[in-house]
Structures
1.
Amino acid sequence: MNKIDHYAVFGSPINHSKSPRIHRLFAEQTQQNLDYVAQEVNAENFVAAVTEFFAQGGKGVNCTVPLKELAYQFADIKTERAKSAKAVNTLALQIDGSILGDNTDGVGLVTDLTVNHGIELENQRVLILGAGGATRGIILPLLDQQPDCLVVANRTIEKALTLAIEFNHSLEGCGFHTLENRQFDVILNATSASLSDELPTLPENLLAENGVCYDLAYSNTPTTFVRWGKLQNASKNLDGLGMLVEQAAEAFFLWRGVRPDTKTVIDLLNAERSV
Ligand code: ATR
C-alpha cells in the first residue's frame, strides 16, 4: 500500500509561505510519500484546526506567526529547545498518539551560519537585536556554540532584562543606547522592524572589522538590516532564507527520520529571487 502522509503549515497570513515548496522539494529529493499544504489559521481557530488535522490522520504541522506560543501550549510533550523558546514551530504525531512540540528555528539559524556560511560562533561577541519570540527561539542554540558573550538589545529594555534573568544571566540584556562604544563580531536582527522597513538607531562602529550581519527575516529585495550591514562593510551580510530552509530540514528530519540536502533547495530559492 502506497499511503500518503499529510503535513501542513498553519499561520496567518500564510499565502506567501515558502514552506510547502520547500517540503515538497525535500520529499521529492528523498522519495518520501507525503503532501504538505499551507492553511490559513489564526489564533482563535488554532486549537480546532490542529485537533481536526490530527483527527483526520495528519502526521505533522509547522506553526508560524501568530501561533508558536499556542502550539507550545497545545503540545503534550516538548523538547528542551522548545521549552527554552516557550514556542513551538513543529508538531509531530508520536506512535502513542501524543503530540510532540519542537522548535527548530534556533538550530536552523546556527546551521545556516556555521555549516552553510562557515561562520564560527565560538568565542565570538554576538549581539541580538530584539527580545521577542524570534529571539527567544534562538538563544539556547546560540549559547550552545559558546560565544564569548551574547547580548540582547531591545527597544523595550525590560524585555531584554527579563530574558537575561530567565537564562540565568548567561546573556546580557540592554537597550540600544547602551551599545555605544561596544563592538560585536556577529549581529543578528531578530526585531520585526525589517518587515515594516524600519531599523532601530544603532551606534557607529558597532560591527567589528570582518564582522557578520544576519537578518532573521528574508525578502526578495534586501531588507533594511541587510542594507545597513552593507553600509557597515560586513564581511558577510545575510538574510534568513537559509535559516528558513534549515529549520524546515530539521522539522522534516523529526517527521521522516531522513535528512534532506538543503544546499540545492537554498540555491534554487536564491536563484528564483535574483531573477
Ligand atoms: P517576533 O515573534 O517576530 O519576535 P514579537 O515577539 O512581537 O515578534 O517581537 C518583535 C520584536 O521586534 C520586539 O523585540 C520589538 O521591540 P519591543 O519589545 O520594544 O516592542 C522589536 N521591534 C519591532 N519593531 C521595532 C522597531 N521599529 N524598532 C525597534 N524594535 C522593534
Note: The two ends are 42 Å apart (CA to CA).
2.
Amino acid sequence: MNVTELNHPLILHKLAILRNKNTGTKEFREVVSELSMIVCYEALREAKLDKIEIETPICKTKAYQLNEENYVFIPILRAGTGMLDGLIKVIPNAKIGHIGLYRNEETLKPVKYYYKTPRDLARREVIVLDPMLATGGSGIDAITMLKENGAQKLKFLCILAAPEGIQKMQEIHPDVPIYCAAIDECLNENGYIVPGLGDAGDRIFGTK
Ligand code: PRP
Ligand code: URA
C-alpha cells in the first residue's frame, strides 16, 4: 500500500494533545499546523532538487534548492486550511488552490461547493491537504476533480486516516501516496474516526 504513517515519539505526544477533548482552539490549531509541517517533510523526502553554487562566509560550495513554485497546496475546505498555515512556512512560494467539500451528515457523501486552482496543474506537484481521511469520500472526490483538471503528480497529506478510507482511496487512486501522522482503528456508525479527534473543522474554527 502506498501509505506512510509517521511513527515517532514526538508525533504521538502531539497527537495526544489533538485527541484530548479538553484541548482548546488555540492549541489545537497550533498542533495541527506543527504536525502538518512534519508530515510535509516526510512527503517531500524524495523531492527533486536543483544543484546550485553559493558562497558561504568561508568558501564557495555546491548546495541544493527546491523549485518551490512547482508545488501547489490544495486544502479541502474547511479543515484543510488548518494545515495550510504550517505548510506555507515550509514552502512559502507554493501556489494554492481550494476545493470546498462538506460531508452530508446523513449520507456521508461529499458535497462540492467551491473549486479554484492554478491553471497549469499538469506540470506541478499537487499536494492535497485534509486533516481527516475517514470514509475517503472527500479526498477521493477532490483528487478526481484535480485529475480532471490536468493534475498528474499528486500526494494526499492528512493527520489521521481510517483503514476504511485508506483502502477506498487506494482502490480508486492507487497512484496517489497517502502520508499521515497516524492510522487509527476504524470508523464509528456516524463515519467518525475512532479514537480520532472529533470534528476537525469544528475544533480548528471553534464552531461547536
Ligand atoms: C471533514 C474532514 C474531511 C471529511 C473527511 O470535513 O475535514 O474533509 O470530513 O470525511 P470523509 O473521508 O468521510 O469524506 P467536513 O465534511 O466535516 O467539513 P469541514 O471541513 O467544513 O468541517
Ligand atoms: N471528519 C472529521 O472531522 N472527523 C472525523 O472523525 C471524520 C470526518
Note: The two ends are 36 Å apart (CA to CA).
